[in-house]
Amino acid sequence: MTLKVGLIQTRTPATHAAALEHVAPLVREAIAGGAQFVLTPECTNVLQKDRAKLLPTLVALEDDVVVNGLREIAAQTGTWIDIGSALVLREDGKAANRQAVIDPTGAIVATYDKLHMFDVDLPTGETARESATYTPGEKAQVVDTPLAKFGLTICYDMRFPALHRALALAGATVITAPAAFTRPTGEAHWDVLLRARAIETGSFVIAAAQGGFHEDGRGTWGRSIAIGPWGEVIGKLDHDEPGVLLADLDLPAADKARAAIPVLKNARPFVGP
């Protein structure tokens, strides 16, 4: 079975209305190209690094204008759409970086709150404290659809192999990796991290990215990519510009890779040093 996925690369604006105007045509382009499952990047609904400006604009997932706009497109076209993440208010009033999977009726059938917060001090002098704005999730998520079983991750999660192994052991054969990667870390680590996560789990990894220089002043790496379970690059956008990557995933290849090198079965418990 072959699954055609559409990876959306965006340069999300600093307001929700502009973000919907930006992403909706790209999603429709992917669907027109035959995509059965469309993945958008992290921060699809708004990109604003100033907390004082961002937080007052956030609403609950079901009230977000971008989320509802993409739900309408899913229902109109009968397509699965995965919002890689939307920045939203949690039920307790705190902020979350939340992925939302939408089925062909427009219903939200699964959500995942980013587990790992990007709290770093880069050699370039760039710093980030994602935990100052967002509350991390506590649970990994696999979504069983008629297309495939998808394991959900967001951006910085890709640096944590244990999460990906848990998703694969739970049956996921396609792992989503929507991102808004920084430029210095993207140039150094983007491809190698994603390929490693695919190889060590025998999974497809699909990564839809933000790219370029944004209204809020940040720069993101782009280079949206689809990787096969043997670590091969199936398709890639070699730039930062907004666009669509269509990729065909030969789903039985995951079982073949896992049978050839059965790391999921061969791992043994051990006593640490």
Could you please describe the fold and organization of this structure?
The structure is a single chain. The protein is α/β, with parallel strands linked by helices and 273 residues long. It has one domain (2-259): Nitrilase/N-carbamoyl-D-aminoacid amidohydrolase. It contains seven helices and 16 strands. The strands form four sheets. Strands 5-4-3-2-1-16 form a six-stranded mixed β-sheet. The longest helix is centred in the last third of the chain and has 19 residues, at 183-201. The protein is globular, with a radius of gyration of 17 Å.
Overall geometric form: globular
Q: Helix segment count?
A: 7
CATH class: Alpha Beta
Lateral arrangement of strands in the main beta sheet:
5-4-3-2-1-16
Structural class: alpha/beta
CATH topology: Nitrilase/N-carbamoyl-D-aminoacid amidohydrolase
The CATH superfamily turns out to be: Carbon-nitrogen hydrolase
Helix content: 25-40%
Percent of residues in beta strands?
Answer: 25-35%
Distance between the amino and carboxyl termini:
44 Å
Q: What is the arithmetic mean of pLDDT?
A: 97
Summarize the helix and strand pattern as letters. Answer: EHEHHEEEEEEEHEHEEEEEEHH
Major sheet description: 6 strands, mixed
Estimated radius of gyration? 17 Å
For the record, the count of structural domains works out to 1
Strand tally, please?
Answer: 16
Low-confidence stretches: none
CATH architecture: 4-Layer Sandwich
